[in-house]
């Protein structure tokens, strides 16, 4: 029996209009444009001035639905990858379900930090592959500005807000869609990238606020060392498992944490820079949104072709990391 595969049949993204430039950050913390660009690749990032992560998700979903004209009531499952849910509960998936009117859907949030979208994509694909569902909405969205300490130059220069959405459906041709994945986590990395406050371990108190425990913390140097190896290793692994060489891969879609990590991954895969999706310069690190944001922009620009091998790769808090291989099946928007 041929395998029922999940494939991406629609993509969309939303970036809020407010731009926060490196020049503006120079006025807020002791940093400079040259340092930020050479060390990270970021020139500017977007900030959601009003609203919450669900609004980023809904913005991306609406753009997606403008291209794939299904009834919203056809959506069966909504998975929202985020570390900045609107609230602890109800889930942001429930908030989104209500806002878009997906009255036949159930859903949940998935906490996988910067690997959240990849984790959610793989989870969503299981529902398609098992025959449980035929329309699964997978979203990566984060309002990072809600947990960033804008007095901490180590983190505030890196992150931005954004959302990206994909629709998973069964592939008509089993050779297309999500072909393979390798996912990892290593909880011993938790000490280097976290937000300590607000959970059951450290509930919100005046003291937790005074200690700035409701902001994200990152030991950048420590994370860099493992991220650069982790993302390159898992990307090489997914190529090896599928007998792919650099020339067989059309695009690398890397998590956008640092241009130097992206470059190292591309080198390890034997990929020319022209085959790597990079928009960190314009958005910074939008955590769960980076990968769908890239996919959506590149698709809209008509750069993706049916049959292309695309490798998605990420590394983030947890530590969590992974890679997935997709044979792209969605026609170019200029042809559809
Ligand atoms: O997405 C989740 C996973 N996260 C990542 O993958 C991020 C991984 N880490 C990184 O991307 C990098 O480590 C950073 C971009 C966060 C930092 O770059 P770095 O090259 O590792 O810099 P560093 O932390 O080693 O700092 C170098 C110097 C230090 O000064 P001294 O001690 O050498 O005098 C820092 O104090 O740069 C200083 N510095 C800054 N200078 C200007 C740190 N932040 C800034 C800043 N502006 N914003």
Which percent range describes the beta-strand content? 15-25%
SSE sequence, one letter per element: EEHHEHEHEHEHEEEHEHEHHHEE
Spatial strand order of the main sheet: 1-7-6-4-5
CATH class of the largest domain equals Alpha Beta
State the domain count. Answer: 2
Helix content: 25-40%
Question: Which spans of ≥5 residues are poorly predicted at pLDDT below 50?
Answer: none
CATH superfamily of the largest domain: Thiolase/Chalcone synthase
Q: Average the pLDDT over all residues and give the rounded result.
A: 96
Give the distinct bound molecules. oxa(dethia)-CoA
**Which architecture of the largest domain does the CATH hierarchy give at level 2?**
3-Layer(aba) Sandwich
Overall form: globular
What about the largest sheet?
Answer: 5 strands, mixed
Q: What class do helices, strands and sheet pairing give?
A: alpha/beta
Present the secondary structure layout.
Elements: E1 6-14, E2 18-21, H1 22-26, H2 33-40, E3 44-47, H3 53-67, E4 77-81, H4 92-100, E5 106-110, H5 116-129, E6 136-143, H6 153-156, E7 161-170, E8 177-185, E9 193-194, H7 206-210, E10 217-218, H8 220-241, E11 251-254, H9 259-269, H10 280-283, H11 290-300, E12 309-316, E13 320-327
Parallel strand pairs: 4-5, 4-6, 11-12
Antiparallel strand pairs: 1-7, 2-3, 6-7, 8-13, 9-10, 12-13
Helix pairs in contact: 3-4, 8-9
Bound molecules: oxa(dethia)-CoA (UT7).
């Amino acid at each position: 029996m041929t395998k029922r595969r999940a494939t991406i049949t629609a993509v969309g993204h939303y970036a809020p209009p407010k731009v926060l430039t490196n020049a503006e950050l120079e006025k807020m913390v002791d940093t400079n444009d040259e340092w930020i660009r050479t060390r990270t690749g970021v020139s500017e990032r977007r900030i959601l001035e009003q609203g919450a992560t669900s609004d980023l998700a809904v913005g991306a979903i609406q753009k997606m639905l403008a291209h794939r004209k299904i009834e919203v009531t056809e959506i069966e499952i909504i998975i929202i990858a985020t570390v900045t849910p609107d609230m602890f509960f109800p889930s942001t998936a429930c908030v989104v379900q209500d806002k878009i009117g997906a009255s036949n859907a159930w859903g949940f949030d998935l906490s996988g930090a910067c690997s959240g979208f990849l984790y959610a994509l793989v989870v969503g694909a299981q529902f398609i592959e098992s025959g449980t569902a035929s329309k699964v909405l997978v979203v990566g969205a984060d309002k990072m500005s809600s947990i960033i300490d804008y007095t901490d130059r180590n983190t505030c220069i890196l992150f931005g807000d954004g959302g990206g959405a994909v629709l998973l459906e069964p592939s008509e041709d089993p050779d297309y869609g999500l072909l393979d994945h390798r996912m990892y986590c290593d909880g011993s990395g938790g000490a280097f990238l976290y937000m300590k406050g607000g959970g059951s371990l450290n509930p919100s108190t005046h003291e937790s606020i005074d200690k700035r425990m409701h902001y994200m913390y990152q030991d950048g140097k420590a994370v860099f060392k493992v991220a650069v190896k982790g993302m390159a290793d898992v990307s090489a692994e997914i190529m090896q498992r599928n007998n792919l060489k650099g020339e067989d891969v059309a695009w690398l879609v890397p998590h956008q944490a640092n241009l130097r990590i992206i470059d190292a991954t591309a080198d390890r895969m034997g990929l020319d820079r022209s085959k790597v999706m990079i928009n960190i310069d314009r958005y910074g690190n939008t955590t769960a949104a980076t990968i769908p944001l890239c996919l959506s922009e590149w698709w809209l620009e008509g750069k993706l072709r049916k049959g292309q091998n695309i490798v998605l790769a990420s590394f983030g808090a947890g530590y969590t990391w992974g890679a997935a291989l997709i044979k792209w099946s969605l026609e170019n928007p200029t042809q559809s």
